[in-house]
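Review form for a predicted model. The reviewer records the input and the model, then writes brief findings.
Reviewer: anonymous (R2)
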Amino acid sequence: MPPRVADVTADTFRELTRERRWLAENDDDILRTQIGVAQIAAPTGAEQQRARWVADYLRRIGLGASIDDAGNVVARAAGAYAGEPVVVCAHLDTVFPEHTNLAIERDGSRLVGPGICDNGRGLATMLVLARVIQQCSAAFARAVEFVATTGEEGAGDLRGAKFYFARNAPPFAVIALDGAGDDRIVNTALGSRRFRIAYRGPGGHSWAAFGTPNPVHAAARAATRLAGLKLRGARRSALTVSRMGGGLSINAIPEEAWLEVDARSTDDATLEQLEREIHAVAAESVRNENDQRAIGTAPGTHSVMRIGHRPCGQTTSDSALVVAAMEATRLVGRFPILATASTDANAAIAAGAPAIAIGGGGQGGDAHSTREWFDNTSSTAGVERALTIVATMARIAAD
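Model under review:
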């Protein structure tokens, strides 16, 4: 009878005593790596400089790192192993524009600055895990591969993770390191579909051409209806009109207006229903505007374009990966909390791999703002937890 995953996790934790001690002794070095990578600009779609920095780091510690066609940095720890690998990933990109001041400042026990936590911490933890596992004394049955991904944030639409998992066989397990924390385990992937609705008309002078269909009016109708949309019987979902624009001048009827919509759910059927509702509202809004137009004026038109799709899914709580993560969380003195979020793990789950996302230790807050902060107090627990999860999954032999 094979050993229980919880027992393998406990054995792994004990056998990694030397490595865990090394992590604690090198806490300052991990923090320096975190600050260093956070100060390299990496807006979504322009992660090249940070990717080169990460690749150089991995090469210095003895791994053969390469950069793939999506800009991901990929490196595998040395050794010949059978079966599917364990993949550790962390996203390279941030939400901040290229010329954002990325200086990191101290405020008591906190480090404050854009991207210090998301995803400076995740990347620093991935890099130190690569360093430890490269020289680890534990006996592994599987390879461990490290992937620094592009396009995780916003309009990046998980581009790097989708590319990587589409071009490789599903890994044995995927652990995404994202931000800080040492207790949450994201095992449910929050899916999303994002749309750009555009309205067009002939435009004209606000007085002389009054009665011409107004694209801004149509967009406003759509936004109001979408904001009040209620889905009966659907699983938990959210719909946000997040951006609007259009028009040339206060005294001109616009030729074009647009709005962008973010729909989210943990359930594919709910996302399908939301997409149908968005299309219906978009069409109804332009019909209403056309019904009010003056005789002889050209009708307005509309289009709906899907601009983002993040798959949803779940790694069940009784899977080997989640059981190992929960046990590792307890072993470092924390209480495991299963959670829902949108991360690179979405792409892995959609590709058929068990996947979770966890923090890289410490605590953080004010993500996606210039006030973003990270507190390194007791951060070693989170790094030890991550190492224990990865090493446990790497010790489970192929059938």
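Findings: The two ends are 13 Å apart (CA to CA).
Further findings: Residues 13 and 61 are 23 Å apart (CA to CA).
Recommendation: see findings above.
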